[in-house]
Amino acid sequence: MSLTSEGQSTDEERLAELGYKQELNRGWSRFSNFAISFSIISVLAGCFTTYGQAFNNGGPVAISIAWPVISAIILIGVALPMAELASAMPTSGGIYYWASKLAGPGWGWFTGWFNLIGLVAGTASVVYVSSVFLVTLLGLSNVDFVFNFGSTNAHYIAHVEFAMFALILIVDGLINVFRSHLVSLFTGISVWWHVLGVAAIVGILIFGPIHHASISYVFTHTINNSGFKAGSTHVPFFWLYVLPVGFLLTMYTITGYDASAHISEETHDAAQSAPRGLWRSVFYSAAIGWIVLLAITFAIQRSKESTILHSGYPSLAIFETALSSTAAKVVILISTVGQLFCGMAIVTSASRMTFAFSRDGAVPGHALWRRLGKNRAPTWSVLFVIVFAFVLTIPAYFPNSLGTPVAFLAVTSIATISLYIAYVTPVFLRWRKGKEFAAGPWTLGGKYKWMNIVGTVWVAICVVIFVLPFTPTGVPWNSGFSLNFFNYALPVTVVVFVGVVGWYQLSAKKWFKGPVRTIDEPDAGPLPGVGTMP
């Protein structure tokens, strides 16, 4: 790597060409860049927490068959095209910056807000469900300190889980603010925890259960526990509505890999490291995730299927019914620690996005959110993420009588929808740009012509699927409708879309000019050229 006479690295030269000065500490390695995306995808989080969404809506086939198929679509149509963009424009703003440069500030505004909302919702969902698993683990271990972790009252459990959620959020925030160098260390540890943890879990699920499900059950059995069509799996409605709702397992789990782009300003050799970290995190997570999902599904005790279907988190029910108490606790412990690593990492990614978007004046109060602490970490952006993740999850404090995690599923839908809209927007814009696009050292060549379209069409379909009601009681015009079963991803998505577009058209386009050249400024204070919000 060549250095200028002033000691400026090639990474910093490229960043300067993109318009930004080197403000964040560039101390992340290529492995660390991969590790943070791999940690956020976290097969120990998504595969365990949203397992029930697929099991109830489709059954084993929504897991054994749908997972590898959807993973391939994500890799080919979204991750690889995003990797090409990350190589060409390695900045913390990532997706937002790409859209701005490809099509102007309006597209950047739209993409940035969906990316930010998706990351905040993702933070909320990951940290919340880690609290659920931690509370469950403490209950199985007969821990009774301040709270009764072994309670069976759905409302009391929800309140305990929410309190634990708030505590974990605070800890993640403190780590990111006061010990930011530990984030890189922990994400490196997280990779090995996930790899070795999955190996341990698979081993336990192979040798622990007395009986295993058959190959036929795992790869062909269908289940409709949604309440629609009286549970039938032999009608077109099942294949066109119920089963696709189960795709949330794969789409939600394989998110967060934009982190490789968001920390590119902190990564050495970013034009090569960021794209490789991005697509490799998806590839390895998809492969490892499929292995652990098959192990979980083969461990199902057919005689306990009804118990599993009536559980708020079916994966936990599978462990508790198939394994000894000790083995179940070990599996849940491994998964919980992986989820805690994931939560810490996604706070890092979301705070970098907040910092970058604020640096360009897009977020109200941007002068505060773009401030760096003494350790050159975006302290106030971390606070932004923590506070709004907490607010978004407040409905989880008010569970339905069955303890069904409808609020969690709605938050995961919001996160998945928002993130994939943000992911695919610059992917589509790059396709539209065609040969005019200036590729970086890592490029798809001419394959973008079909790969980017595959991703765009797939995401459009998924956006529609994930705003649909999960159950008949969540359909507003049904007689048994209840807000406790309502998928509020639909109104939130509509409000966000209308709000983001309307805000830009009525106000922001008058003062928001897209990425601002901080390289021309003498310090990191308020930026001249960034309009003041009315």
Write the layout of secondary structure elements.
Blueprint: H1 10-17, H2 30-41, H3 46-49, H4 51-56, E1 57-58, H5 61-64, H6 66-88, H7 95-103, H8 105-140, H9 154-178, H10 180-207, H11 215-220, E2 223-224, H12 236-245, H13 248-253, H14 259-262, H15 270-298, H16 305-309, H17 314-322, H18 325-359, H19 366-369, H20 379-392, H21 406-433, H22 448-465, H23 489-511
Antiparallel strand pairs: 1-2
Give a structural overview.
- With 534 residues, this protein is mostly helical.
- It has one domain: Amino acid/polyamine transporter I (Up-down Bundle), CATH 1.20.1740.
- 65% of the residues lie in helices and 1% in strands.
Q: How would you briefly describe this protein structure?
A:
The chain is mainly α and 534 residues long.
Count of distinct strands? 2
Largest sheet: 2 strands, antiparallel
Order of strands across the widest beta sheet? 1-2
- What is the CATH architecture descriptor? Up-down Bundle
H-E order: HHHHEHHHHHHHEHHHHHHHHHHHH
Query: Poorly predicted ranges (pLDDT <50, ≥5 residues)?
Result: 1-8, 524-534
Mean model confidence by pLDDT: 86
Q: Can you count the helices?
A: 23
Based on the model shown, name its key terms.
single chain; 534 residues; mainly alpha; Amino acid/polyamine transporter I; two-stranded antiparallel ribbon; disordered N terminus
